Structures are given as C-alpha cells and as structure tokens.
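One-letter codes give the sequence; the fold follows as tokens. An example follows:
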Amino acid sequence: MASRDPADPEIVSVQVGLPRDYVWLGRELRSSIDKHPVSHPVAVLPTHLEGDEQSDPENHGGPDKAVYAYASEDLEWWSASLGRALGPAAFGENLTTRGLDLRAAVIGERWQVGTAILQVTEPRTPCWKLGLRMGDAAFPRAFARARRPGVLLRVLREGHLQAGDRIVVDAAPPHRVTAGDVTAMYYGDRVDAAHILAAPELASHWQDWAAHRTIWHLANESDHEQRTI
C-alpha cells in the first residue's frame, strides 16, 4: 500500500449528533449542534451522515446541506483569538479538516473522501445555535465578522468515511466562485453578485435569498424617494 503524504488534505475528526432540548435566552429550543466524534467508519447518506439528525430540517440538512465541514486551521485561529482551546465539533461540524483553506473552496468542487464523493455547495451563515454552543448570544456576529464560515456539502455518491481519510479534491469548476465570495456577497461587500449566483452548483436557496434581497432594496429605495419628494 502506498504511503500517504502527510501534507495531503485529510479528515482529522468525524462528528455526529442527535437533537437535544435547551433553554436559551429564556426560550425552550431544540438543536443538534452538540456533536461528538466517532472513530468508526460512518455511512454517508443522501441528506446526512448516519447517526446525525437535524432538528430544523427546513434550515439545516437536506440535499444541499448534508454535511458541514470546518477546518482545524480555523479552529486554531479561534483558539488564539478567544484564549481557550477549541477542538473538533466546536462549531457543530460533521467533518473537521486539515490542509484545506475552506474560504477558497470553489463552489462545485468535488471531494472524494473514503468511498463517498461530496460537493461544496455554500458557506455556513451563522445563527443563534452558535451563540448557544459558545455560551455567548453575541458570538454569531463575531463569527460573521471573522469570515471563516466553513463549507456545506451535498452528497454525490454515498459511501463511508472516517477520521484519517484523505480528501482528494477534483479540478475546480471554471467559474471559480469560492465560499469566501458567497460570504462576501451575503454581507454586502462589493462583489459581482450576478456571477456568484450564476454558479450552477450553488445551493438553490441562494436564488431565493437574492430575490428577497432585491425586493427589500427596491422597497426601501421607493420609501426613501417618497420621503424626499
């Protein structure tokens, strides 16, 4: 068997979790963000990893968000920034990677991991669950400012994966739209949004987001015009 180059991208940890009930900011809530590492091979199913169950299927999981990956390099950055150690599963990710800049991951690039094939679909956008996980209601805003979102992936081929598996990344699609580009668009940076939204592999809900954002801007521009007449 050929030895693996230690510089090759790899999965350093695989996490799954089930829904749990919480009380957060005076509300009773349910979340699956508390995940735990597993050492055995895990089946990759069309909408999730075996043993992982989403609490809010409308906004999490499903074909375009089947698996969430976060880089160990970004966890190390957060550990230094926060002054405390953060390890795998800190942000509820399914896969903790090493050797990949996930901000530069191209939408549509394919990862062969174990016997499964995954495809990058979008970056994560933070919600209240990150505040719950970190014990800080303001943390989602800090996460957004850091621009280290990790990536969500769809399953192109079912199979099995486990910690230690190499990540083989196929040639990137020619549009070259990255997860970082999508994040920049979401937070209103000056980017070519039309080019980003035209990436065919981008998760479909971004088109709905763009339509709602356009309607919101038109409504606000109309309101401003009426106030200045």
Q: What stands out?
A: The radius of gyration is 19 Å.
